[in-house]
Amino acid sequence: MPWTTPRPPSVPARTSGFPESAEPAGPPRPSRVSRPSRRSVLVTAVGAGGAALLSGCSDAGDASGASTEVSLERRMRESAVRDSEHLLERYDRTIAAHPDLAGRLGPLRASVAAHPAALAFVEPGREASPSPSASATATPSRSGEPVPPKAADALAELADAERSLAETRTVALAGAPGELARLLASVAACGAVHAYLLTSTPGA
After folding, report:
1. What is the pTM assigned to this prediction?
2. Exposed, middle or buried: residue 72 (CB in 10 Å: 0-12, 13-18, 19+)?
3. How many Å apart are CA 34 and CA 106, to the nearest integer?
4. CA distance 94 to 99
5. pLDDT tens string 154-178
């Protein structure tokens, strides 16, 4: 029987005491705090600035719109006042040239004399001042076209002036602000009535 050398007993390998797949736990690492990038900060700032700019433009647009409306109303009122004053001067010239028509024209003239004060533009917070032309007494005017020598022609010319101004105001009221549009419609209707009375037979 051949001689065999006995093998020494196998010694288990030393382990570190941890599972093979596990590592010893070290101190916890501090987590990184996410900071916004410079690009995102700039985008946010630009967006906020743009919103403020748009808001400012919107406010300026509203103010500009209100200012434009007031300016339009003011121009229209001043033009309407001038038209009424010119018509009043025509009444004065007619009465001065034909004193016998004073009784017939007096009430119509008084109505026309009230229009400038009603049409005048009034600044906010102020009261309208009475028109210096509101007097019912005829005052001859040195300006304007001459009055026809015949009374009938003078009345017809005055009626044409009333009718023409009424038509002009009827067209203008379509583009006028609310309150002024109603006022122009009323004054235009008054002018149409005046034109009818000037061409009708008294007492008919």
Report:
1. 0.61
2. middle
3. 90
4. 8
5. 999 999 999 999 999 999 999 999 8
